[in-house]
Amino acid sequence: MLHAKDIILVLLFVGSTVCLEVEITPTQGEISVGESKFFLCEIVGVAKEIDWYSPSGERIEPNKPEITVTRNDESSSTLTLYKAGVDSAGTYKCLATNGDQSAEATVNVKFYQRITFKNAPSPQEFNEGDNANIVCDVISSPPPTIIWKHKGAKIQMEKDVRFKILPNNHLQIRGIKKTDEGSYTCEGRLMARGEIDLKIIRVIVNVLPTIRVWQSEVNATAGVGQSAMLTCAADGYPEPMVTWARAGVLLESGEKYSFNEDGSEMTIMEVAKLDEGEYSCIAKNKAGESEQELSLRVFVKPKITFLLNQSTSEMEEQVTLTCEASGDPTPTINWSFGLRPFTEGEQAHLNRIYQASWTRPEQHKSLDGNVVVRSDARVSSLTLKYANFTDAGQYLCSARNAIGVDSQPAYLEVRYAPKIHGSVTVYTWEGNAANISCEVLAHPSDVSILWLRDGFQLPNANITKAKVFQSPTASYLEVTPESENDFGSYNCTAANEMGTESKEFLLIQADVPSAPSLGEVEPFSSSARVEFQEPDATGGVPVLQYRAEWKTVGRGSWVQRVFDVQGGALSEVTITGLKPETNYEVKMSAINGKGEGETSPAVVFKTEPVREPEPPKLEGTLQTKGNSLKVNWLKQDDGGSPITHYLVRYKPKYQADWKPEIRLPSGSEYVVLSGLEWNTEYNVFVVAENLQGKSQPGTLTIRTSPEPAAIPATQGCSSVTYTLISLVLSIVAVLLLS
């Protein structure tokens, strides 16, 4: 009987007699250079050792960096090649051993090179005009076929002889141009494996700078603290850097020279005669350097060196203004007074506007001999033999040469006795205050002004309703008449150190206006336009309002409306709220400060039947922001039927097509048209529509604003502004005193 120990020994003996078998998966290996791959060695039978051997026959040790061997279990082992290169090619062997038994298998590992771009930089830069070689180094096994493309299409070498593929597969462009710039495709193909790869290379063409000069010779003025600017514009790619030099020395930014951001403008501060000469504008970029000469000529601007103010008394003393000036070239010297310069042969008295010009040396006299002008070299004089108070003011001396002008004012002071102005006749009525203005011109301006009535100074106990208000240049007498005795003559007397002047003013009783004279009445469906002439007599004071009254003929009560007079005149009014096809009568009266005058005779008219509206009246206003136009309209007669909406059309006057029509609700009074063309005449039509139909268009033709330029901010205030401010302050002071 067999024991268990015997059975185990038998099995071990049988197993040891089984042959070993080795199989490698995959059976062959083809690897792209740089790739990784593993091979599995599997054993049939029991193997005590499983070893891998390199193509050189050496046993491969486990856990090497680039090649590893791993024993998976009793019957398998793995060989792994990491990022293998062509030096790893060859036959690898897997050997299994167990005692005196062994078995092996081999695998042949082959390597191939995929299409690889070794050197194809992007971008690649060239100078315009050069023979450009675009580098694209490609390797593969076997060697690839190279195709060049530009703008998505294969470059046809036979069509443009400037293009050529060199033996090293680089693309040559002979005499490369800026227009050749862009993206080029270097494409490698390998027919054996159907493999393809590409590289896009951006080609940049640098252009040698060119310099443009608008003004090769610049004039400048010395000695007046001014600066001169030399300008050159440089073109090229990449954008050139501009520098400036003089006599071979590079100029740097500092107290004397300054440059704008791109260097195209050089400013020479505090120009002096020594700055005159040649300057070089130098433009440099990757493609090279260009240079252009500019000249600076320095002149001396005219400068007035002597001019004094003068003072005289009216009609008493001769007075002379003298003006001296320097400059190079030697300047001519002119005088002006008022708005125009003197011109030869028109020497009029200064009460009118003077004009004269002369050559030196020369003498000119006015027609009455009152003005004499003398000029010689750099000096000119203007003499007034008998000065009038209107001769006082600013005289302008102007020195001019070919490169500039200098002007300075001289002030002639003329002392004179007061001169009284103001309206001689003033109308008012009992109980209504009237202001009589005594406006005084005098120099010196320290003037005493008195008001007299029947030889007595005002105000006084006999005339309690009189008040006097003073301002620097006038005196105002406020009189509130209480009876006929308060009307009549009032005397204003003004005096200064030069003399005295008096003037009589009349205060006259005002009356209510007479009746206006009605003219044509133009009826519509629901309104009527009434034309009239102002009253023959206004009562001495302005008409302030007109009252219109109307009613249906033979029945009803009078309806009235008061119309204010604006702008000093009113010649027609429109009455509304009328019924179509109805007889009406209308009359009018005028109203002034004293009261309402007589009513005019009534005029009868008949309104029109219900119909389409009257055309709106249009008014256009150019807007301050942007090139836009605000069109306002005034609703006219609605034709006896409410307006439902407005239709707006517009177009440039000399174009055939209208802009899209704009529809606005009945309550609209304006529309803003935006995005218009500059300095262009536009036609605008506005139509009102009711249930009866459309009105004729209200029309407007208006020119848009010229395209704006930069406008400097206004500084300071004009003399007119100061005069208005003084007048307002004076009136406020008068009101506070009252």
From TrEMBL:
Signal sequence extent: 1-19
Membrane topology field: Single-pass type I membrane protein
InterPro entries membership: FN3_dom, FN3_sf, Ig-like_dom, Ig-like_dom_sf, Ig-like_fold, Ig_I-set, Ig_sub, Ig_sub2
One Pfam match: Ig_3
CDD domains with a match to the protein in the record: FN3
Domain Ig-like: 20-110, 115-186, 209-295, 302-413, 418-506
GO terms, biological process: cell adhesion
Name listed for the protein in its UniProt record: Neural cell adhesion molecule 1b
